[in-house]
Please model this.
Amino acid sequence: MAAHAIVAGVGMIPFTTPSRSETYDVMGTRAARAALTDAGLEYSKIQQAYAGYVYGDSTCGQAVVYGLGQTGIPVFNVNNNCSTGSSALYLARQAVESGAADVVLAVGFEQMQRGALTMAYTDRPTPFVRFDEVMDKIQQRDESPFAAQMFGGAGRQYAERYGTSPETFAKISVKSRKHAANNPYAVFRDPLTVEEVLASPHIYGALTRLQCCPPTCGAAAAVLVSEKFAKANGIDASVIIRAQAMTTDFPSTFAENDMTKIVGYDMSKAAAQQVYEASGVSPTDIRVVELHDCFTTNELLTYEAIGLTAEGTAEKFVEDGDNTYGGRVVTNPSGGLLSKGHPLGATGLAQCAELVWQLRGQAEGRQVAGEPKVALQHNIGIGGAAVVTLYEKVS
Model:
């Protein structure tokens, strides 16, 4: 059996709104230090670091890592839009599994500005040219944020295809807040009703404001080690990365005039299938998932993309309560991006931290019953990249 990377430590700081945020370097260093403490390791043991962020100048990763010390190790800066944090984790896992390093830090952070995401550079082609061309064939553009138009349009097309009600999408926000009530790291923890969600300002398609993740600031980190290092140093080796896959867009993204493809459905499906095949684990074995709910529409689409429910059955999955405690699989016990917030570079590693805590039985009021042995993570970025990771508790 091939050696697996061990998640020796995870760390996270409470996410917050831009007006209350520390600077990125402070946040990132705090999260990294928390992961080192959780692993019981000094920074001097780290041999490589992968730092994920989207909004920042080059070498922000070094600024974060230098807050821990200056040991001369390689530091790699990673930017893959909303899947940046899990992309950093992917590279860290590869470094450990390949034998290139025994102890690797992955840290993600973001100091965001208020308001919807916008393009940073207007004097050069946007990386979304192909996506925009297809979207313009399908739907009318307006002044709403571009991401909301993409994901709102995907939800609209899905609803037209399967007859999904607006209330079903709204129930995802209600579920998110209910889960977040038990998460001290989440920004929004107050309960919501379906009526409140639907009455919030309309954004695009099926989306209202309370169905869109907010711009937030934060950081999270993980320390990965080899099995050899863990054994030699008495490191907790109870959680491993059993399988992981990253995919980018396929021709179908741009060829089918389908907004669900534009927002990464096929990427997510392919990455999940690769993980299931590599691990031998079935979607029916999964009891806890952290998935990319930047909008309620994407959470619903992802239920089907990663195989939690069959195509066309996501509404029943929600209505039956199979996406929450007491149902078949608890999705986003953290509250997800909708409630926890979405600091782009931090999100993938925050998902990692939540699932490691779940597998260790350390999630307190969010703990999924029945001592889950495996946990699934899904993180996407338009442009595009999808990362799906399966964690396993082995001891």
